[in-house]
Specification:
229 residues, mainly alpha
């Protein structure tokens, strides 16, 4: 596969990942009554699990496609990007497993009403809080860490317009802020504050996906640049 096709496919993967991310949301898990709602909406959770797996594949697929190209401009930064992306995907898979574990716990809770509900609630809270921490804090921070290397490389090598690279870095800062605020309990998951902080990144990824799909990289200028950092 030539470079142009790889770049276009990487842009397509970004857009597929955005769609998969939307369908990976499981409202019943975020409900206060998730122990009963999860079992009632088991198909919704299974679908969310499938799409989260697809999202993970787009993350690693994008990295695999783009790494051979960006390493020509900075080996260290491209390795940094790839390393963070691999860690993020690994964490994402753990999140998928926890989602299925919550569903299994909910099914057990509904089928065993005679047992102490406090035990199920305690286990459920541990699984749910761990999953929230993985999906909304640590995976976000790992993705931001890798993307920081990537967008700085974009900026230095002028692979994409400067304004697009700056937008990406700005979005990373806000997304990291959302993760840190969530970690310290200053905001909750899926709140207005949390969503507002992540909107710039979401919009950027849509624009970047279409840019790579249609325009690609500015390789005529970029191949004149190579720097080992």
């Amino acid at each position: 596969m030539d470079i142009t096709k790889k770049i276009r496919l990487s842009g397509l993967l970004i857009l597929v990942g955005i769609i998969a991310g939307i369908f990976s949301v499981a409202p019943s898990i975020d409900s206060i009554d998730y122990l009963t709602e999860a079992s009632k909406n088991s198909n919704q959770i299974i679908v969310a699990t499938i799409f989260q797996f697809i999202l993970s594949l787009t993350y690693i697929g994008f990295a695999i496609l783009i790494y051979p190209i960006i390493k020509n401009f900075s080996t260290s930064m491209s390795i940094g990007f790839l390393s963070f992306r691999i860690m993020a995907v690994s964490v994402s898979v753990i999140g998928i497993i926890l989602l299925l574990a919550i569903l299994a716990l909910s099914n057990s809770f509904v089928q065993n009403t005679a047992q102490d509900p406090a035990i199920f609630a305690s286990i459920g809270n541990i699984l749910k809080n761990t999953r929230d921490g993985i999906n909304h804090i640590f995976m976000v921070l790992l993705l931001c860490g890798g993307n920081f290397f990537l967008y700085i490389l974009f900026l230095k090598a002028k692979l994409v317009p400067i304004w697009l690279s700056i937008w990406g870095v700005f979005g990373i800062v806000l997304s990291i802020m959302s993760g840190v605020l969530l970690l310290f309990g200053l905001v909750e998951v899926i709140t207005v504050e949390y969503l507002v902080l992540n909107v710039p990144t979401a919009l950027f990824e849509i624009v970047l996906g279409f840019w790579l799909l249609i325009k690609g990289f500015n390789l005529k200028i970029s191949f004149n640049f190579k720097e080992e950092l």
